[in-house]
User: What shape does this take?
Amino acid sequence: MSVIAVDFDGTITKDRGGYPDLGEEQPLALRTLRDLVAEGHQLILWTCREDHETRIDKRHLTDAVEFLLNNEVELWGINERPAEEDFRYGDCPLRRKVHADYYIDDRNLGGFPGWHAVRAFFRLPTLCVSCESTDVHSVPNWLQCGTCGASDRIYYEEIQRIRFVRERTI
Ligand SMILES: [Mg+2]
Ligand SMILES: [Zn+2]
Assistant: This one.
């Protein structure tokens, strides 16, 4: 099982018109995060959001955390591993990278491939991006949903690409 650091703005939600508002969910984001936790992975929210010290209307980190908890996404850490799980010196005055096995972020070099690709990488069932049905078939160069009829070639190609990446990296 893996520790997965996941960005919020532009990754879990759509960035444009988002921050400091929460923005709209990216397709399959919350469902995929719940599925990853159900598979035993541990999620660290990895975000630049923070709460203002005194202004109750500027609790941008709390907004994001509550959004995830309200959508039944269980977090293992927020911008850090739980202290008892971190092998490094906890009192280091210098900020350092959150330690994780994987980072999911829209600022990834090459861009964010989408949650359907995250699902493929972690071997979760392919879902229709439109209706979240599992009744999705590859025919032969695109995806076709048997429930809502949606079809998509780009998703198909991205899923193939991420499977290729996966085979080369783990
Ligand atoms: Mg982002
Ligand atoms: Zn569908």
User: Anything to note?
Assistant: The chain has two domains: 1-112, 114-170. The pocket of zinc ion (ligand 2) is lined by residues 128, 130-131, 133, 145, 147-148, 150 (CB under 6 Å). The longest strand covers residues 3-6. The CA atoms of residues 54 and 60 lie 12 Å apart.
